[in-house]
Design a protein that fits this description.
The complex is a heterodimer. Helix content of chain A is 33%, strand content 19%. Chain A has one domain: Udp-n-acetylmuramoylalanyl-d-glutamate--2,6- Diaminopimelate Ligase, Chain: A, domain 1, CATH 3.40.1390. Chain A contains five helices and six strands. Chain A is globular, with a radius of gyration of 13 Å. Chain A has a six-stranded mixed sheet with strand order 1-5-4-3-2-6, with helices on both faces. Chain B has a single domain, classed as 2-Layer Sandwich (Heat Shock Protein 90), CATH 3.30.565.10. Chain B has five helices and five strands, in the order E-H-H-E-E-H-H-H-E-E. Chain B has a five-stranded antiparallel sheet with strand order 1-2-3-5-4, covered by helices on one side. The chains are: A alpha/beta, B alpha+beta. Chains A and B meet through helix 2 and helix 3 of A and helix 1, helix 2 and helix 5 of B.
Chain lengths: 123, 138
């Protein structure tokens, strides 16, 4: 599913888009968590086509995405990055959005749209 | 051969992850391929966060040669009360503050061990010494 369609499904608001071409990229996986170590545990997924869905609107969600080469983060419950963290997102060339849906609702919407979990079972 | 050293301060949440970010950029510049780079970045970031959350501060040493990339994370205490428990997924002693920042899932050390090719951990009240290494293919 293209990122533009993902954003439409979630009625998401744009906080920052580094490169508009990202909107045409196909996304297949979602890492949905507020626990950054859980996101970091799914390193085997194809992170070029994975988005991070989280309620943790601080620098550590950005750092976690950076370590995983994830370029798109959607924050739930209308959360927005504070100015200093939005600046960090820009410096990292990250694409960041906000949806009014709760984590549960956003996961439900994306699951129904066919996106899969990015989280691998621990070996 | 490249050697780098970085100082990490106790509960320095404002700068958490900056050193790992710098190291990732450095390794990218010297041409480390992306899958290996991601494994290294995740392990380094988890270890840096552990040091900030749990220790009184310490040092990260990075050594790069043709065959491996090796890290030493050495802190000055207070040590891990039970190393075996700390290696179990889900076991955590993280503070409420650490949890606010998205950590404390009890996955830090298990993640590091899973990412690294070599993993050595020792701990006492005077400090924790974690050494991890990643093989670099020619």
């Amino acid at each position: 599913m293209k990122l533009s369609q993902v954003l439409q499904s979630l009625n998401a608001k744009t906080m920052w888009v580094h490169d508009p071409r990202i909107l045409d990229r196909e996304y297949t996986c979602v890492s949905a968590t507020d626990l950054m170590s859980d996101a970091l545990a799914m390193v085997k997924s194809d992170t070029n086509h994975t988005l991070l869905l989280t309620g943790l609107q601080n620098a550590q969600s950005l750092r976690t995405a950076e370590m995983l080469d994830i370029q798109t983060i959607i924050y739930v419950r209308s959360k927005e990055l504070p100015p200093e963290d939005l600046q960090l997102a820009k410096e990292m060339e990250m694409n960041v959005f906000s949806t009014g849906y709760s984590m549960y609702e956003a996961c439900g919407v994306l699951y129904m749209e066919g996106l899969a979990t990015a989280t691998k079972s621990y070996d | 051969m490249i050697e780098m050293n970085y100082v990490i301060h106790r509960e320095d949440y404002a700068n958490a992850g900056k050193v790992s970010s710098q190291i990732k950029q450095l390794l990218k510049q010297i041409g480390i391929q992306s899958d290996l780079l991601r494994r290294i970045a995740v392990a380094c970031y988890e270890a840096e966060i552990n040091m900030i959350i749990h220790s009184y501060g310490g040092k990260i040493s990075l050594n790069i040669n043709d065959s491996e990339i090796k890290f030493s994370f050495v802190d000055i205490g207070p040590g891990i009360p039970d190393v075996q428990k700390a290696l179990q997924p889900g076991w955590s002693t993280a503070s409420e503050k650490a949890r606010e920042f998205g950590f404390g899932a009890g996955m830090g050390l298990p993640n590091i061990k899973r990412m690294a090719d070599e993993f050595e951990l020792s701990s006492s009240e005077s400090g924790t010494n974690l050494t991890i290494a990643f093989k670099v293919s020619a």
